[in-house]
Amino acid sequence: MGRIYGYIRGLPGRQDVEGQMITLREMQVSEKDIFVDRQECSAGSREQYRNLFRKLKAGDLLFIKELGSLGDSYGEIAKEFRALTKEKKTDVVVLDMPQVDTRRGKTQCGTLVEDVALAMLEYAADAEWSVRKQRQKEGIERARSRGVQFGRPELPMPGNFEMAYRMWRGKEIKGREAAELCQISTALFYRRANQRREMEKEMVLDGKD
Q1: Distance from first CA to last CA of the chain, Å, rounded?
Q2: 101 DSSP β-pair partners
């Protein structure tokens, strides 16, 4: 058996670092092998966790209090759990979830507990992502229904746009010439001209109702 480590992350609203220290000592983890990130930070930037990760070797054992110590989302947790168990080949024990103890279920054919735990985490990460995307889509639709515009706002047209548009519609000038009169690009002139034409069609249809 390798070395035994402990990791503590002080989560917002659950900063019981000293209580976790006592629990890890009871698990026979030496204090010098307990790594603590007290401040709130994302999984990708935790300094002490990264120091610990560099030290871990195959056959080592890591105790953590809860899965949330590994990340702020199921995606982050799954990524770190995979890195610990598959890349580092470190055993992980989650004290708040006794069923997540990768020392159990090891056979010649594989590592049952860590494989099941990882599959569940990755499934949860996919579900979490799908829910987040759906909520984002619904939020955008609600905002649009209130008249909120997304993307870069349209630039106001010069005062002579209407005159140039009428001359272009009457085939008195070409689109390039109309754009030059307005001092805008030809592509922008055509885009705004098409919008103006659609508005005219809608006005005609409204007048027929």
Answers
A1: 83
A2: 93
